[in-house]
Specification:
- The chain has about 160 residues and is α+β, with helices and mostly antiparallel strands.
- The chain has a domain at about 25-105.
- Helix content is about 20%, strand content about 15%.
- Helix 1 packs parallel to helix 2 (about 80-90).
């Protein structure tokens, strides 16, 4: 931010350097695995089809193994056929989220969600003035996802006929 006040000799104008709107966009791309972030990359500028294709071919595909699952949102630059072919050629399965889907929020599967479970109280607190026998505790909230629960969520379901 530009400073609005400053000091200079009495009678002389204050001269200072200020930014003139040369704002830059940096785009961070990474693969979110059950236990870590993988294939990180920073692109100078906004994402477009060409830069995302370069990221997939040069950074993401070398880290993929046969049977990995890649889930992407519906950004236009994600939908190129060359991107789909590169991911599937590595042996990974590709899925797109439905538009405006809250099904898989990124914060739900982040590695920091394990730390949240450590800070949860073990027993719900009682409201002030309640007797110990007259208060029924509310049902416990869902715990933070564990690695095994995340893996089970991302496992493909088999249909039995």
């Amino acid at each position: 931010m530009t400073r609005r006040h400053g000091r200079s000799r009495r009678g002389s104008r204050l001269v200072a350097k200020v930014p003139h709107g040369r704002w830059r966009t940096l785009t961070f791309l990474a693969a979110l695995r059950c236990d870590r972030l993988d294939a990180p990359c920073v692109i100078d500028g906004p994402i477009n089809g060409d830069s995302f294709l370069a990221y997939v071919e040069q950074v993401l595909v070398p880290t993929l193994k046969r049977g990995d699952v890649v889930i992407m949102d519906n950004l236009g630059s994600h939908k190129r056929q060359a991107i789909r072919r590169a991911i599937r050629a590595a042996g990974a399965k590709l899925f797109f989220l439905p538009p405006y889907s809250p099904d898989i929020p990124s914060s739900k599967f982040s590695p920091s969600s394990k730390r949240c479970s450590e800070r949860l109280p073990s027993e719900p607190s009682r409201p002030p003035g309640s007797a110990s026998g007259s208060y029924s505790a509310p049902s416990p909230k869902l715990s933070a996802p564990t690695t095994s629960r995340m893996q089970a969520t991302l496992q493909p379901k088999t249909n039995v006929l």
